[in-house]
Write a structure and sequence with these properties.
Blueprint (H helix, E strand, L loop, with lengths): L9 H12 L6 E6 L4 H18 L3 H8 L6 E8 L4 E10 L6 H6 L9 H4 L8 E9 L8 H15 L4 E7 H11 L3 E3 L4 E3 L2 E10 L6 H14 L3 E3 L4 H8 L8
Parallel strand pairs: 1-9, 4-5
Antiparallel strand pairs: 1-2, 2-3, 3-4, 5-8, 6-8, 7-8
Helix pairs in contact: 1-2, 6-8, 6-9
Organism: Petropleomorpha daqingensis
InterPro entries: Acyl_CoA_acyltransferase
Protein name: Ribosomal protein S18 acetylase RimI-like enzyme
């Protein structure tokens, strides 16, 4: 029987995590996954656990909200080999700008605003991805997992030619992201209740290494710290090496 998104049992989750971490060195591993990969199921399970605990979101609500987006998702999931469990997930949606969840949801209440002009995007542009989810298991917070997820998602995005993210982020998470990127986050609308969060803000995040040397340098420092403690999967490692090798842009 096929495993159901957002509803793995602990036994199913542990079995998948054990399979993916077999033979890996170190305690943590970061995995890049497409929508049909086992790692994607683990990513969705972290999402289900964290969103239920933080916002009261049920698996049924999450399936209603995200089912149509599943085929367009790219996942980063961090696994803990000792716990044999997924401990963090970042999910990106790729597609034409008009289809990105932030663009669609900002056009509806409570915002009812056109997002594309504020994002500097045309409907068919494909140089942006939507940051649908960044979630860290409560038992593993304040251990650098969020920074590892952001870095890995950043690496994967740059490798795909993406130069910005859109997102509607819970305001607590927004503050952490703004600190990590030193001001690369730009709100495009005011904070409002959203999917169980008492306050979430629509934003865009720039990430073009060709024009923003300070931000590139900051993310490469995060990468140097991450590689000391984390094994990166074969799909992510070449992009990570290429990202770390990028030269800072020359000032005009």
């Amino acid at each position: 029987m096929a495993l159901e998104p957002f509803a793995l049992t602990r036994v199913e989750s542990s079995r998948l995590a054990r399979s993916l971490t077999s033979g890996s060195a170190g305690r943590l591993s970061a995995h890049l996954a497409g929508p049909d990969d086992d790692a994607a199921l683990l990513s969705l399970q972290v999402t289900a656990t964290v969103f239920h605990d933080s916002f009261g979101n049920t698996p049924e609500l999450l399936r209603r909200e995200y089912a149509d987006l599943l085929p367009s998702m790219t996942h980063v999931v961090v696994l803990d080999r000792v716990a044999q469990a997924p401990v963090g997930a970042l999910i990106l949606q790729e597609g034409p700008a008009a289809s990105l969840k932030t663009v669609v949801d900002v056009a509806a209440p409570p915002w009812s605003l056109p997002a594309l002009p504020a994002l500097g995007l045309s409907p068919d542009d494909r140089n942006a991805a939507d940051l649908l989810v960044m979630a860290v298991d409560a038992a593993f917070r304040n251990r650098g997992i969020a920074q590892l997820l952001m870095y890995s998602g950043w690496v994967a995005s740059v490798a795909r030619g993406l130069d910005r993210w859109t997102a509607i982020l819970d305001d607590g998470l927004l503050r952490g992201l703004d600190q990590l990127t030193a001001g690369a986050v730009v709100p495009i609308a005011s904070s409002a209740p959203y999917l169980g969060s008492p306050g979430s803000t629509p934003i865009t995040v720039r990430m073009d290494p060709a024009v923003d040397g300070d931000l590139l340098s900051r993310m490469q420092r995060v990468g140097r710290l991450a590689e000391r403690t984390t094994a990166f999967c074969p799909r992510l490692e070449p992009d990570r090496v290429a990202f770390q090798s990028l030269a800072l842009p020359v000032a005009a």
